[in-house]
Write a structure and sequence with these properties.
alpha+beta; Thrombin, subunit H; Yope Regulator, Chain: A; 3 domains; six-stranded antiparallel barrel; globular
Length: 362
């Protein structure tokens, strides 16, 4: 197996609370991640290395193991197969690769070596490595030098400096082998004692009576601001779950234009689009156009060669009386950005932004 296989099978998990990593197991048609990455969510977005979003359902969680399994209706059968390594196949000093999306950044692989193949922490054995592990790597795979999965990265041990940890592959294998015939349509909690899958909200396992993890059935409630912004995104014909890019942040494409909506300094709501790059020559007509036209309620700006269309509103100005107008302005910015990027190319010789999707359709 080649590194390109890793590149294709490791995805980013995103929701309104943040992001993490996951990886696809073709033989099970499931994505694997950490429980703490998707805790409180039943639907999340999966993004491949080209930021194409896919909706996914959280179908199994095991809080004790800190593992979760995700299912999607999209056909990923064209992706390559990842191989799970044999149990206890690691030795101290062996090579380790950690793949994922640290801090929500683009796909990254870091390398290191095995510091301890069986490190006991919080009652569970983990794989310890000196490879760089950061928030956002959680849920992604750890590979050996043959690119076999040897662990699932966890970054929750923040007190550990210059150390990374992974859930050992036999723990993942144990979860997968205990599933039986899996219902891929509903959220289910696996009992940490008897492996029973529980779909209905319970405090205790109905099979063995063991107490379930507190809050494991609780769902995250979106803020009023989140609901407002997502009503505008929905009005654009886009599933808001696929647009979520962390807390009070959304990122998606409307046609060819990338749209970014975010809260700045807990005071302003920004909606902006990097529509075009200035032409390398004869920029005066573009600048004259930007200075002479009234783009209200939007602003045009330039950073380097990047041209932006932006809309800003103070959070205190979003009131029951104004929210319909503000929602309409957010929607219209996306529509206008999708029109303007083509116009700027045809009229002024600008280029598409590197963030544009030139093969996209509205």
């Amino acid at each position: 197996m080649e590194q390109n296989t890793i590149f294709q099978t490791v995805f980013k998990v995103s929701h309104s609370g943040g992001s993490g990593s996951c990886f696809y197991l073709k033989s099970h048609d499931l994505f694997v991640t950490n429980y703490h990455v998707v805790e409180g969510y039943r639907r999340v977005a999966l993004l491949d290395n080209r930021r194409n979003p896919y909706p996914a359902r959280v179908v199994v969680v095991n809080p004790q193991l800190d593992l979760a399994l995700l299912a999607t209706d999209h056909d990923f059968s064209a992706l390559p197969e990842l191989t799970l390594a044999d149990n206890d196949s690691l030795a101290i000093g062996g090579k380790i690769c950690v793949a994922g999306y640290p801090y929500g950044m683009p796909f990254t692989i870091t390398e290191g070596s095995v510091s301890a193949p069986r490190q006991l922490m919080e009652g569970q054995y983990y794989l310890q490595t000196d490879a760089a592990v950061n928030p956002g790597n959680s849920g992604g795979p750890m590979f050996n030098e043959r690119y076999e999965v040897v662990g699932v990265t966890v970054s929750k041990f923040t007190q550990a400096d210059n150390m990374g940890f992974g859930i050992r592959v036999e723990t993942l294998r144990q979860l997968l082998e205990s599933l039986g015939e899996l219902d891929r349509t509903h959220y289910q909690v696996q009992c940490g004692s008897c492996d029973e899958l529980i779909a209905d909200e319970e405090e205790y396992c109905p099979s063995c009576g063991d107490k379930l993890s507190e809050g494991v059935f609780k769902q995250h409630e979106e803020s009023a601001l989140c609901q407002f912004v997502e009503s505008a995104i929905r009005a654009m014909g886009i599933d808001p779950i696929l647009a979520r890019d962390g807390y009070d942040s959304w990122l998606f494409h409307k046609g060819s234009s990338e749209i970014r909506i975010f809260v700045y300094e807990d005071a302003y709501l920004f909606s902006t689009s990097p529509i075009n790059l200035l032409p390398k020559r004869n920029v005066e007509p573009v600048l004259d156009y930007m200075l002479s036209e009234d783009f209200g309620p939007y602003k045009m700006g330039i950073e380097g060669r990047q041209i932006y269309l932006a809309y800003r509103i103070h959070l205190s100005d979003i009131t029951p009386e104004s929210e319909e107008e503000i929602r309409r302005n957010i929607v219209q910015l996306a529509l206008r950005a999708d029109e303007m990027d083509n116009m700027m190319i045809e009229r002024f010789g600008c280029e598409f932004s590197e963030y544009s999707k030139t093969d996209a359709h509205s």
